[in-house]
Each structure stands twice: as structure tokens, then as C-alpha cells.
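hey m, so remember when u said the C-alpha cells were messed up on ur end? i reran from scratch. heres the input so u can diff it against urs
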Amino acid sequence: MTPATYIGHHLTFLNHPVGQGNFWSLHVDTLVTSIILGGLVFGFLSWVVRGATAGVPGKRQAFVEVCIDFVNEQVKGIFDKSFSFVAPLALTVFVWVLLMNAMDFLPVDIVSKGLKAVGVHEFRIVPTADVNTTFALALAVWLLMIGFAIKVKGVGGFIHELFCAPFGMAKITANPLSWIGALLLAIANFGMNLIEYLSKPLSHSLRLFGNMYAGEIIFLLLWMWASTGVIGTTAAAILGLGWSIFHILIVALQAFIFMMLTIVYISMAHEHH
């Protein structure tokens, strides 16, 4: 296979069209991997929490307690209000994104051959390298952010803030110019808020997607190099080991950043201007 066909093959999704034509389709591989990882990790956490004891914790309980305490500390440092909902949300985001990112460490050719044995010829194993996944997560956080803003400020307060922050509202007098000034200022405020609201899900999702997609491409290039002979295999093994070690940091860091932005956005929704 040429480099283009090799990479193109491994970057092809397992699609299932919905309705007539290809306008709407489901990425079955992304959905299946995400659901399996979510079920495994949160089933494990639920199992450990249900069996937790007040005495000396075992290794599993200690590990889960460290994860929960870590997330709680991050939430407390940013969100100074009741975090009975935000902390579990942050834990869900961090652990789930971390596990989906970590699928990038699986050897793509070995996984591909195993799937071909059961009749599956196209399957992408890294859900967060699919922009649909990262956008779905970011949009879910974005909708929660707007929901919290309306809950805290009320519908009237939320709309008022859209047109009166960050530049404030001009004082309206009998002078017609004051009406024109108030209208222009309201338009400027709304434009700034619109840009802010649209940029949040874009930056939230594309940051994670870009890092994981780039990591997937690099691993594919290294695996392709490994098939060129003894020298290529040796070089690919050395470079692959170095990239894997560096990629561990990227996998964990991107999950942490996604979690922190989730907390920050929801915290900002509670602020009054």
C-alpha cells in the first residue's frame, strides 16, 4: 500500500447511512468504542464506590478516591458555589475523555487485522480523533452553561446581559441621539456576546480533536515505516517508543484541559455583570 492509501484506509470510519443518501450517517466505530469505554470505566467506578469501606481502603478504592479528590480540588479552586453537580460532571468528562484518548496507544495494524478476522474492514479506534465526538461533548457542556446561566439569572436577566454586557447600557433621555447611542451599544454588546458564545464550543472541541487527530497520524506514519524492512522497523520502534512516552502527556493533558474548561465555562455562567 502507498502511504496515502495506508493512512486513508485507517482514517476511514465505519459508516451507517441514515435514510436516503449519505447526507446523514452514523460513525458506528466511534459510537461503539465510546459506549463500551463509558460502560467499563463508570461500571468499575460504581462497583468500587458501592463497596467502599470506612476502614483502610484497598488498592482499587484508594485509586478511585485519589481520582475523586483530585477532581474535587480542581472544582473547589474554580467553582466557589455548590458543586454537587459540577464535580460529578467534571469527573465524568475527565475519565471518559482520558480513556477515549488512551485508545490511541493500541497498535492500529494489529487491531485492524483482528477486526478483519470478524468481517470488519473499516474501524477507527480513537473516538476523540473524530470531530463529531469532541463537538458532541463540547455542545453538551455549552448547553449546560446556557442552562445554568438562565437558571441563575432568569430569562430576563440572561437576555439583559446579552445586550448590556460588557460595555454597559447607555442612559436613555429625551435626546434622540441617546436612543441611537443605546441601540448601537446594545448591538455591540450582543455582537461581542455572540462571538464569545460561538467561540467556546469551537475552541473546546477543536483543541481536543486537533491534538488527537495529529497523534493518530503520527502513529500511522510510524507503523507504516515499520513495514519497510529491518532498518525501518528498528527506527520506527525507537521513534514510536519516544512518541508514545510524549503522547502519554498529551493524552492526560488534553483530558485535563477539557475538564478544566468545562468547569470554567459553567462557573462563568454563574457570574453576574
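this time it looks ok to me. The beta strands are 15-17, 25-27. if urs says something different then somethings off w ur setup not the seq
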